[in-house]
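[Discussion] Sanity-checking designs against the backbone

I'm trying to build intuition for which residues belong where. Below is a structure token string of 574 positions. I'd appreciate it if someone posts a full sequence so I can compare it with mine line by line.
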């Protein structure tokens, strides 16, 4: 199988400073895991619930180590293999570690003197990459291009060979199933060449011929079609699975690509609408999310334990002694709940809450309801509604959360006022809004190119625009885009670059929107960005308060990437 990935490989040398850091990190890892190792194996004690905090520390440390060494040590690999056995492991926190290590193995293979198809496919015989391709989304362009080439070469081999070596087929089918999961996870964003399109048609013809003879369709052929589109898009496969019992190796694909989607279609029929949806922009946005429920997430992390939701709010704030008394939070509105991860995470933090989760897209809500059943969540009321008509709902809330939503309205301020109307005096609001400083510096060039070339926002246009980016990856203005996770899945890409409606904000505009009615309680980030943001603030503004939103303007100018996702912040109503 032919590959050319040299132009995507960066050669790094290890400085003395890096060597010293490597030594310190590995010493710290050793101190945490020493008691859990016996005869070079991890004991069962490591797997108990009480070690969640240790595992979290280890993930952070192992990521530092793998970034220095560019591969996992044998001990760190064993630690990771144990961690991924947890039901609630966060795939995003492991992505850098697993992909950097996998890339090192790919590079070693291409440097080796012995190269053949079986040896290449055996790169996938690794618990960590098997886990990640099933559960996560590849967010590394080198890994992605290797996987795309593997998919293409396997398709070519199966489409143009009448007989395959049984040993090759056995290994290849397992890899094909993994690739099919990954393609489903990223919503088939990878480019499809003309050669591949011709080979897909050859596979279809083979399947039709086999089906006419009423014989079993080989799993490799089914899996390859599922690498390019959902099972439900192939009528011949739907008919086949209706009449035939499938092999167990296909169970997970059929579950995710067929059974779960059918369940969501049934759930959708019973979702109630709390408001009319007749605003032109709202209808456009609804159309986008109904055809692409986003994101199709899989698992939840347990995270830290909290006494209640107010305790959680306090512990996410930069200053935790803001409140002289406890606040009772009971009724919660999640406005723009998408596919449900947000309200389900809130429900898990505090099961005593009464949560109303609304969204404009019924298919997205249906996904959330199915996942809430999966996780045993019973304190969420789900409904379709337009934020612009929240005044039609006769209820006020102790807490309103809306992340990544009102910036998609024609007038975001009108949406904010609607959220404000639903919040009780003294209540809390959590907002997430696009940051102009970051988005203009990263996205203006590609958006200009998109507009000049009149790209639509369908999957063919996404692939075409993305192929332009890949072909121009050596250009600095495009290379930085591949650091953004949303570039690697269709809905994320569409949201980032091709959304039908969006606004962005400056910190000054945030202040103007909220300061009359609300006290600013602070921005919040993931762990690494939080450290970076607060260190920068303390260096630039050592005497200033973090509770004045305008004091963060100078920090944003210095490190705009801390707001790469959005401005995310807490408010309290005056």
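Best answer:
Here's mine. Compare freely.
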């Amino acid at each position: 199988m032919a590959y050319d990935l040299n132009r995507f490989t960066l050669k790094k040398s290890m400085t003395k400073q890096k060597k010293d850091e490597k030594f310190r990190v590995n010493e710290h890892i050793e101190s945490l895991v020493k008691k859990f190792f016996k005869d070079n194996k991890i004991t069962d004690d490591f797997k108990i619930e009480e070690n969640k905090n240790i595992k979290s520390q280890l993930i952070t440390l192992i990521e530092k180590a793998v970034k220095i060494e560019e591969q996992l040590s044998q001990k760190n690999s064993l630690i990771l293999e144990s961690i991924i056995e947890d039901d609630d492991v966060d795939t995003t926190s492991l992505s850098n570690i697993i992909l950097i290590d996998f890339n090192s193995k790919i590079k070693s293979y291409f440097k080796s003197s012995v190269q053949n198809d079986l040896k290449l496919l055996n790169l996938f015989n690794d618990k960590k990459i098997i886990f990640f391709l099933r559960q996560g989304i590849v967010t590394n362009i080198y890994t992605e291009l290797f996987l795309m080439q593997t998919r293409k070469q396997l398709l070519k081999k199966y489409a143009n060979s009448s007989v395959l070596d049984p040993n090759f087929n056995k290994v290849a089918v397992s890899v094909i199933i993994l690739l099919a999961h990954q393609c489903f996870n990223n919503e088939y964003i990878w480019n499809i060449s003309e050669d591949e399109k011709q080979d897909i048609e050859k596979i279809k013809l083979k399947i039709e011929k086999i089906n006419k003879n009423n014989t079993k369709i080989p799993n490799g052929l089914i899996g390859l079609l599922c690498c390019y589109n959902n099972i439900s898009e192939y009528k011949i496969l739907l008919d086949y699975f209706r009449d035939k019992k499938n092999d167990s190796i296909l169970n997970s694909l059929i579950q995710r690509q067929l059974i779960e989607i059918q369940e969501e279609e049934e759930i959708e029929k019973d979702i109630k609408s709390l408001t009319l949806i007749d605003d032109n922009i709202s209808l456009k946005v609804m159309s986008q999310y109904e055809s692409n429920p986003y994101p199709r997430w899989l698992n939840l992390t347990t995270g830290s334990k909290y006494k209640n939701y107010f305790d959680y709010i306090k512990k996410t704030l930069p200053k935790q002694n803001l409140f002289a008394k406890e606040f009772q939070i009971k009724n919660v509105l999640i406005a723009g709940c998408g596919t449900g991860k947000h309200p389900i995470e809130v429900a898990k933090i505090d099961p005593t809450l009464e949560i109303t989760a609304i969204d404009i897209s019924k298919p997205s809500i249906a996904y959330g309801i199915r996942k809430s059943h999966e996780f045993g969540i019973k304190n969420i009321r789900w409904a379709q509604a337009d934020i612009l008509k929240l005044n039609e709902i006769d209820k006020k809330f102790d807490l309103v959360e809306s992340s990544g939503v009102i910036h998609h309205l024609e007038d975001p301020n009108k949406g904010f006022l609607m959220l404000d109307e639903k919040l009780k005096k003294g209540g809390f609001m959590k907002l997430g809004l696009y940051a102009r400083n970051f988005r203009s510096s990263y996205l203006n060039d590609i958006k200009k190119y998109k507009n000049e070339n009149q790209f639509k926002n369908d999957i063919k246009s996404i692939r075409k625009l993305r192929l332009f980016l890949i072909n121009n990856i050596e250009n600095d203005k495009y290379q930085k885009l591949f650091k953004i996770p949303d570039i690697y899945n269709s809905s994320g890409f569409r949201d980032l670059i091709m959304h039908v409606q969006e606004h962005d904000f400056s910190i000054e505009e945030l202040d103007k929107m909220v300061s009359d009615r609300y006290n600013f309680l602070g921005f919040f980030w993931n762990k690494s960005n939080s450290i970076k943001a607060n260190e920068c603030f303390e260096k630039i503004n050592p005497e200033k308060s973090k509770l004045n939103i305008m004091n963060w303007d100078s920090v944003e100018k210095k490190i705009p990437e801390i707001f790469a996702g959005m401005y995310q912040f807490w408010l309290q109503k005056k």
